Every structure is written in structure tokens, then in C-alpha cells.
Amino acid sequence: MIEKAIRDLALYGVRKELIADADVPFVINHLLEEMKLDTYTEPEGAVEEDLEKILAVLLDYACEKEIIPDSIVYRDLLDTKLMGILTPFPREVIRTFQDLWKEDPQKATDWYYDFSQNTDYIRRYRIKKDVRWKTKTAYGEMDITINLSKPEKDPKAIAAAKNAPQSGYPKCMLCRENEGYAGRVNHPARQNHRIIPVEIAGNHWFFQYSPYVYYNEHCIVFNGQHIPMKINRNAFEKMFDFIDFLPHYFVGSNADLPIVGGSILSHDHFQGGRYTFAMERAEIEQYYTWKEFPDVEMGIVKWPMSVIRMRHKKKEVLVEAADRILTSWRAYTDEEAFIFAETDSEPHNTITPIARKHDGLYELDLVLRNNITTEEHPLGVYHPHCHLHHIKKENIGLIEVMGLAVLPARLKEEMEMLKNAILQGDDLYKNEKTAPHAHWAEKFLAKYDAVNAENLDDIIHEEIGQVFAEVLEDAGVYKRTETGKMYFDRFMQHCGAMKK
Fold first, then answer.
1. How far apart are alpha carbons 131 and 101 in whole angstroms?
2. Strand 140-146 to strand 404-407: parallel, antiparallel, or no bridges (unpaired)?
3. CB within 10 Å: which end of the chain, N or C, has fewer?
């Protein structure tokens, strides 16, 4: 059985063009070494083509023979090592990508995205577990996901990580030194990981896909140096450099302050990909003219968060205009609108920028952010408010800003329990899993004439989607009221722009 799995994994590598026929004996010997075997007999039987099944046989054997502890973390460390044996050297991957890019950038990314899945760096079989649906809202059709592809650590791994010596290598999950790294209990293995060099603003940057793929061709573009993120003029220039490199992709950045920023502020990076989000589809609802930039198409987008969109054929013009808005926003205070540039010398205002190209025009969305907290809202005034925390409590980063909800894995079980409790007529307040959702459920159930086993899943999905729209409204610094629109217009006038 184990010899068959070893053979099947080597043949998988041939099928996916990771290795050549001539490499098979070499690869088999390396796999034998990892399985602590020193003999091999060519097995009989049909070749298994399902990678997840092949790896499961190898991992089960390794656990049974006590090569590794039976834990998801140790299993992931080993299967990544096994896939690393099949993965070509970085120079080969870079050469193939660059040759294809010269023909057509889209051909290059098509190949690289498929390659990143074939090496199991992107685990297709885990991504399929994510729960995904779309919900129509007042702002367009938003994407909702319950993320199940990132494995939870088990007690064995948590204990081992606690006792493991602290390491500063690699410095973070984005550093280029992750490529080929063996990993440890508190840092994932990356032997099957390959990155593509890119020149951004005259500096060495790199491009890779996210292993968790929240949307199609979800990529990360990161600085070759471990330096902090900063939203400034140079950030806009770097984003447009990437758009020139891959014009069929968008690229955006998390904000650079806590609460409204991403999870990794210590390493300069962007996220991008080949996907059209609801925010991109949203239209400008109020156009503006700007005396200093008369030929820039500019306006406020119909979106729950506060978005300024600009278009121009020259990226340099947009960089200049965006820098003016950013500089104005950093220093802007409007006490009546509860916008404070800083309190006690702590800055609050920043921007989440997103760049793309349409019909020969560069396009830049600037999402105004503020991370001020109060006693009433200790997690942030412009953050999901507490009555929505049963669905979404985490920071609203770039992906959510654009209209894709990344919801916690706990919701899958909690929504199933909520559904069963509703259908059985149970008291929703008595179970700790359904109690946080009870008041919300009572409110939405009253809206429907009929609730039954056939339609309840759809109802719950619909209502979660509407909660997400509320989450984004909470995160918007200017509310979707006439007063909020007046405050937004006041800032636009402060920048020098006037309504058309």
C-alpha cells in the first residue's frame, strides 16, 4: 500500500509536469527516505490520481510508524515536505513564468496559478470546504464566505508551539526567506512554495498566490525587504507599477493603522488578483470637478464605506491627485462629523487604496478610514458595532472593504445549530452556541411568512449577507444619510473639489 502511494505521487508529478519521466526513480528514492524505507518493489494496481487520497495514505503510514505525531500540524509539515520533492527549483519556475509573460501576462498568471495548485501550495481539496454564496444588497451583490480551509491547531501542536524555541527566521509569513523553508510547529512549511521576482518602483519585490485563496487568483505582492507598510505617495506609485506588470489584475493595500489595517503591518505588501468585487461594480453617484486636476474623472461611489474613485489615462496624474487627498485626510478634523486626525498624539486617519485598469484608463479607489475608539466602541467607532459581533467582530481589511465577507469558521456549526433549533421550536437563548444569535433570529424570522426546512438555509444566508452590509456601513466614516453625505462633501471641498 505504501509503495503504491509513493509510486502514485511520483506519477502525479509527471502528470502535472512538475517532474519528467526521467526523474521518477530519483523522486521515488527521496520519498522512500522520508518514509524511512530502504527497499522498493514496483507495485501493481491502478494508479490513484486524487492527490488528497495519495497524501492521506502516506501521512497515515507516517503516523502509524511514529515518524510523525498524529496531528494536523505535523501532517501538514510532512506532506509539504513530500510535495517539495516534486517541486522544480525556483530558477526553473521563474524562467517559465518570464517566458510566458513575454508572450502574454495572462498566460503567465494562468500557468503560475495552476502550478501553485498542482504543487499543493494551494490545497484545492481544502479550499472546496469553504462555504460561499452571494447576497443582493442595496449596494449590489456581495460575496459571503465562511472560511474553513485554514486548519485549526490541535492541543498537541499548541503545546509543542508553546515549548518551541522562539525563532526570528523567517521574520514573518511574507518574507522571501519562506520559499523552501521546512517550517516548524509555529510556522508553516514552504518547500513547495515558489515566488516570482518583480521590479516595483526600482526595488526588488516578489509575487505569489495566497495559499487560502479567498477569491480567484488571490495574490500577494511583497517587498524583498522586511520593512513596515506605509500608505503614502510611493505606495500609489508601487501599485500602478504592479498594474503595468499584470494589467488584468487589480491591486490594493490594507490601511497602515491598527484596527482598520491588515493582520501583517510589519511587512510592506499588497494584495491583488483577477476578480471583480461588488465595490468595483458600484457606480459613482456624485461626480466632482477639481480645478487642479480638470481632466481627472472623479466622484463618490455608491458604497457603504466612504470611497472616492478617480480615473485618468496617466498614472502619474492619479498619483499626484491621490497624494493630495491622502495628505488632506491625514490632517483632517471635523468634530461635528466625529472625525479626528489625532487624539493624544495618536494618528487616526488613513486610506485603503485599490488600483486597476479599465479600457485603457487607470482607476484608483481611495477608501477613507479612521481608527478612533471610545468607551462605547472600544474596538473602534468605525468598526463593526457590538450588535453585529455574533457574525463579524474581526477587523475590516481590504478584502471586506471591497465587498467580500471572510467570516469565522465557528459560524458553520452555529448556523446549523440555529437552523435546527428554529425548526424544532427550541428556546434559542438556552444554548451557548445559539444564544448570541437569538435576538437577531427573532427579528429576521418575523419578516417571513413561511419558514421551513426547505427555505431556512437560504433565509439564514440572506440575513448574514444583510448583516455584512451593515458591518460595512459601520466601518464607513461618512454614513449613508443626508447628514453623512453633507459631511463627505465638506471634506471634498476641503480638498478643493466641487460637485458637478
1. 34
2. parallel
3. C
